[in-house]
Amino acid sequence: MAGGSRYLRLGVFGWRGTGMWRWGRLMHSKHGTIVPFEVACRLSRRGVHLQKPPMLKPTAFLLLCVMLVVGCAGVSEEPETAEPAQPVASAGATEPDIPHEGSAEQNPGREPRPDDARGEAEAAAVAAADFLAQLDERQRAAAVLPYDSDLIRNWSNLPAGILGFERNGVRIGDLDETQQAALHDFLATAMSPYGYATVAAVVAAEGVLEESARARRVGWSAGNYWLAFFGEPSPTNPWRWQFGGHHLAINMSVRDGRVSMSPTFLGIEPARFSDAEGIHVPFMDRVDAGLAVINSLDGNIAATALLDERPNALQSGTGPVGFVPFEGASLESFSAAQRQAVLDAAALWVNLMPEHSAQVRLEEIEAELEQAYFGWHGPANGTGSIYYVIHGDTVLIEFSTQDPLGAAEGHIHSIYRDPTNEYGVG
Length: 426
Description:
Number of strands: 19
Shape: globular
Radius of gyration: 20 Å
Number of domains: 3
Strand content: 15-25%
Number of helices: 11
Largest sheet: 12 strands, mixed
Oligomer: single chain
Structural class: alpha+beta
Distance between the termini: 35 Å
């Protein structure tokens, strides 16, 4: 970000529905990334400038500032002993104007953030153990499954009411307040702050659906998300965790001091929603990233990138990825700037992982980028329905709008996979 300055555009964002989430007072960036209120307090105390969003009237913004100052006084924080962590390379021009996704100062969980990938893995194990310690015997038996259980493949983007199987683990809506707080501490520690905020956005949208007359029958509920562990969380032995529900399936693996994330499904409905303070479009960064790539291309390269047919659904889904064809334009023909735009787009999925593991993963993707492909279907002017795919030997990212861009509510599906390291067995 220019001059090294950091800005956060604020808007009060209230949870809807059951209000199952610990940090009920939220802030959002100008790109729609949602940040817990307590995190905004940390930012304020560390010199991050807070900007008034266009939707707030002067009196409302003044009240918000008072709330922020009063709220920050009650948020404990360890003394700052080091400079904030530097951004992960290739975060991209579309990243939110907040401290980078992996930085210590944005962490809504434990402080300080670990300074290497092994430290991140160990911190996740400790937070997982702390969560499990809050569960009773029955809950713990449901939460921890054998490391090699085939049940890890039991995930879906479908809502609970129409799903043909039971999700793994414990349901967030069945946990008491203390257990929910421990669950959130785990998620905030085991993911990057950007990853945690992305999960929060998906569940916030689910809270909007929960107000629908169809919600009970379909199973739309902010409480219908489940957390499971495969293997005992450990700083030395491999283990996995899975958090999912409607439009969400996070599969993270911890092995040899490093975190990996495949497969992971991210979706949202409504993709565009509002409250008293304004309109929220949490996945707009992914739309903008795809548009940045396709609009950087011209001539034969642009023509080759255009796909003749739009897939009816994400091609990889929950099954094996070997049948997904390589299609579109080879990145070997892209300029360095165009390849960087593709890497920036990929970073929006990779950066769900903790900072240092994400950095290693982005370097791996960059190393093979010339052998990867980029494909696009749909208008390139920010309207209509779009689909794009980034596909290499070790990465597959699909992004699809289920409704046209600009639709009243919108509906988005996406998936990230590493075919060589599914469920951390690579």
